[in-house]
Write a structure and sequence with these properties.
- With 177 residues, the chain is an alpha+beta fold.
- It has a domain at 73-171: Alpha-Beta Plaits (2-Layer Sandwich), CATH 3.30.70.
- Helix content is 26%, strand content 14%.
- The protein contains 5 helices and 5 strands; from the N terminus they run H-H-E-H-E-E-H-E-E-H.
- The strands form 2 sheets. A 3-stranded antiparallel sheet has the order 2-3-5.
- The protein binds iron/sulfur cluster (2 copies).
Length: 177
């Protein structure tokens, strides 16, 4: 390596205020105060939950209602009301939280080889990244805009196939595939 390739950086000289992080602390407090005043005075984004709910969820552009919020999962059904999933394990492989569990079985239908005998998602482990949705080759798994997910036990937060299919039934009108 030539000497001319070496870049020598001088250590920046900090003022006394910089050494105590004062400008940064004051800038941070200013941002906090700005948001607090906006929230209190303009009542921006304040709702009385659960009596009031957020109805202004962000949607995809193009006029089609496709919420970009990533909430509770659903398993989609095909035109014949069967689970669309073909048990290919792409979603569980892509899942960084390892919270999707699938057991595949021989399909009872002639148009596919496999289907999920068991399929569950631990909604408490999930980080709602959407990787499963992206990985699915047949659009069988989707995240809905349901954000008020509550349960009294950990077991309630494990959504099995039947529950995921029920979420589809509940959301398909408002959020078509
Ligand atoms: S949203 Fe992300 S973390 Fe949750 S199940 Fe899908 S891939 Fe896993
Ligand atoms: S939900 Fe999609 S990606 Fe996951 S196993 Fe079923 S078909 Fe494959």
């Amino acid at each position: 390596m030539k000497d001319s390739d070496v870049i020598v950086l001088d250590e920046p000289r900090l003022s006394l205020a910089d050494q105590f992080y004062l400008p940064q602390v004051l800038a941070g407090l200013g941002t906090t105060m700005k948001h607090m005043l906006k929230t209190v005075l303009v009542r921006d984004r304040v709702i009385q939950y659960p009596e009031e709910r957020r109805e202004d969820m962000p949607v995809d552009e193009g006029g089609i209602f496709k919420p970009s919020y990533r909430g509770v999962h659903r398993l989609n059904k095909d035109e014949e009301g069967r689970v669309k999933c073909v048990a290919c394990f792409m979603c569980s492989t892509a899942c960084p939280a390892a919270c999707i569990h699938i057991e595949a079985g021989e399909s009872p239908w002639p148009d596919r080889e496999k289907y999920p005998v068991t399929f569950w998602i631990d909604e408490l482990r999930c980080i709602y990244c959407g990787m499963c949705e992206e990985a699915c080759p047949v659009d069988a798994i989707e995240l809905t805009s349901i954000y008020d997910l509550v349960g009294l036990t950990r077991q309630e937060m494990i959504f099995d196939k039947e529950k995921l299919l029920r979420v589809y039934d509940q959301t398909v009108e408002q959020e078509p595939m």
